[in-house]
Amino acid sequence: LAPWLTGRTVVSASLVDAVPGPKYAGLERAVGQRVREVTRRGKFLLLPLQREGRESGDELVIHLGMTGVLSHRAPGAHLRVRLGLDGSEPSALYFSDVRRFGRFMVVRSDRYDGLPTLRALGPDALSPAFTPELLRAALARSGAPVKAALLSQRPVAGVGNIYADEVLWRARVHPLRPARRLTRHETIALHGAIHEVLTAAVEAQGTTLYDYRTVAGEVGAYRERLSVYDHAGEPCPRCGTPIVKLVVAQRGTHACPSCQRPPRRRG
DNA sequence: CGCATTTCCTGGTAGC
DNA sequence: TGCTACCAGGAAATGC
């Protein structure tokens, strides 16, 4: 997105087949503003806006949710937002979103109203600020299962359900282990696994299970590299024990019961 | 405040 | 074939 959108001015913003509301708050404020840069914190895309050459304090915040797709070409269905842009083709950004979990809103960058997770977001998983020491300190504060802690985006930003399972498997940590009980060694392994898995996934252009497409319309290839997610019943790539599926933090969760020692017997 | 639970939403599919 | 019930999950809202 960055090379295409940076410096462009929004000339129109319209909701299509979407009910105005908090998920599309302030959208009309984008009109007449210029995209200063395209940046990202965790799963939130952040596009600070300028009006007449100076920062306006407004930021376009986009979250794809489960099924959001950004494209420079009009989607066949489920279009929610169309942003018209000045300059050469392609001159529109389309946001489609089958299940409507995504967000496409303009907010004050110093307040992030209606976005409590963004306000309290941990360091981005791929930024230098994300260190083993910081992860250890953040996990020490949480009594929740380590997978729930990861999904909260507080210890680190950018790990969702699929990558949480992959990362915990790689670090040999069971998803139900209380976050604060991880050893120093496990925390270091977890930090390394987060960095490695996300780096490889970005390189593969993401994981497409069903809907995800890149801006250019390509599927992500990381699905073929998943070790445990969506592999229930199949042998663990490390030890051959069948992968089990359980529920943690109300989410489908996959783990090797042998490599990832459970904290204690549970339901 | 922290953690758990519920809610939003639609397409795909299992089961009858 | 056609119907219902259920499942997938990011993060906000609500409950305790």
Q: What's the short story on this structure?
A:
The protein is of the alpha+beta class and 267 residues long.
Descriptive notes:
This protein is α+β, with helices and mostly antiparallel strands and 267 residues long. It has helices at 2-5, 116-119, 132-140, 146-151, 161-171, 184-203; strands spanning 10-15, 34-35, 39-41, 44-51, 54-63, 68-71, 79-85, 92-97, 103-108, 244-248, 251-255. Strands 2, 3, 4, 5 and 9 form a five-stranded antiparallel β-sheet that branches. A four-stranded antiparallel β-sheet has the order 1-7-8-6, with no helix packed on it. The protein has a two-stranded antiparallel sheet with strand order 10-11. A hairpin with a 6-residue loop joins strand 7 (79-85) and strand 8 (92-97). The model has no long low-confidence stretch (mean pLDDT 94). It binds a DNA duplex (16 and 16 nucleotides) through loops.
Write the layout of secondary structure elements.
Layout: H1 2-5, E1 10-15, E2 34-35, E3 39-41, E4 44-51, E5 54-63, E6 68-71, E7 79-85, E8 92-97, E9 103-108, H2 116-119, H3 132-140, H4 146-151, H5 161-171, H6 184-203, E10 244-248, E11 251-255
Antiparallel strand pairs: 1-7, 2-4, 3-4, 4-5, 5-9, 6-8, 7-8, 10-11
Helix pairs in contact: 3-6, 5-6
The chain binds a DNA duplex (16 and 16 nucleotides) through residues 22-23, 43, 63-67, 78, 97-103, 114-117, 141-144, 148, 151-153, 160-161, 209-211, 249-252.
* Shape, principal axes of CA atoms: globular
* H/E topology pattern: HEEEEEEEEEHHHHHEE
Mean pLDDT: 94
Oligomeric state: single chain
Query: Which regions are unreliable across 5 or more consecutive residues at pLDDT < 50?
Result: none
The total of helices stands at 6
The biggest sheet, with number of strands, parallel, antiparallel or mixed sense and barrel status, is: 5 strands, antiparallel
Distance between the termini: 45 Å
What portion of residues belong to β-strands? 15-25%
Structural class: alpha+beta
Number of strands: 11
How much is the radius of gyration in Å? 20 Å
Q: Into which percent range does the helicity of residues fall?
A: 10-25%
